[in-house]
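Subject: for your reference before the review

Hello V.,

The reviewers asked for a structural picture of the protein, and I figured it would be easier to keep everything in one thread rather than splitting it across files. Below is the amino acid sequence we used in the manuscript, unchanged from the supplementary table.
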Amino acid sequence: MNNLFVSLEKEVFTGNVLDITYENKGIIYNTNKYYDNSLELDYIENSSFNDGTVKEFYDSCILFFSLSKVRSNREKTKFYKNIYNLMRENGYIYIWDVEKKPFKTMQKDITVSLPDKSIKKFQVKLFNLFTENTSRKIIDGLKEYFDVLESISSDGTFRIVGRKKGC
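And here is what came back from the structure prediction:
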């Protein structure tokens, strides 16, 4: 099993923040709380979350090791569209996740360093042989709704930053 390290010590998310997570509740909240006690942060715990009643409310959306849980590219495209509709003009999307190619399984221990110097640990387990979660595939899907501003890959993880298109 591989160990991965992610530093969120200098990450600052502004405005209304949407944290789309599966199992890592508290990591993004604790990161933001360190810099802003009056934080407006909402959690969503799965990919089918927007019924169309909320539009253009969030300034930042964080997907922290959650896209790898969305199985198909079709579901991911729908997911991006839902996020796009929730984002305000000039809204930013931040994605951290693991690289997983099809026909491979993986299990990784993730260690996260927070701004208060505390450490959080969790595991990512992906055993579905047909799932593909690569930065290239994620960027291809995002391009319809977001301008990709940054993409960094290292040691089997990636970070992508995008801005809502049309701004």
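For the response letter, the relevant points are probably these. The first strand starts at residue 2 and ends at 7. The beta strands are 2-7, 17-20, 41-44, 58-64, 87-98, 106-113, 119-126, 146-154, 157-164.

Happy to draft the paragraph if you're swamped.

O.
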